[in-house]
Amino acid sequence: MNKFEQLGLNEQLLKAITDMGFETPSEVQEKAIPVLLANETDMVALAQTGTGKTAAFGFPMIQKIDANSKTTQGLILSPTRELCLQIANELKLYSKYYPSLNVTAIYGGASITEQARQVKRGTQIVVATPGRMKDMISRNMVDISKIEYCVLDEADEMLNMGFYEDIKDILSHTPKEKSTWLFSATMPKEVATIAKKFMKNPHEITVGTKNSASENVQHEYYVVSGRDRYLALKRLADTNPDIFSVVFCRTKRDTQKVAERLIEDGYNAGALHGDLSQNQRDIVMKAFRSQQIQMLVATDVAARGIDVDDITHVINYQLPDEIETYTHRSGRTGRAGKSGISMVIITKSEQRKIHAIERIIKQKFEAKKIPTADEICEIQLYHLASKIKNTEINDDVENYLPAINDVLEGIDREELIKKMVSVEFGRFAEYYKKAGDLNVAANSSSNGNDYSSEGNTRYFINVGSRDGYDWMVLKDFLREQLQLEKDDLFKVDVKESFSFFNTDSTHTEKVLATFSEFKMDGRFINVEVSKNARENSRGRGKRSGGGGKRSRRSDKGSGGNYGEKRFGKKGGKGNKPGSGKRRSKKRF
Question: Basic residues compositional bias: what residue ranges (predicted)?
Answer without folding.
Answer: 539-553, 567-588
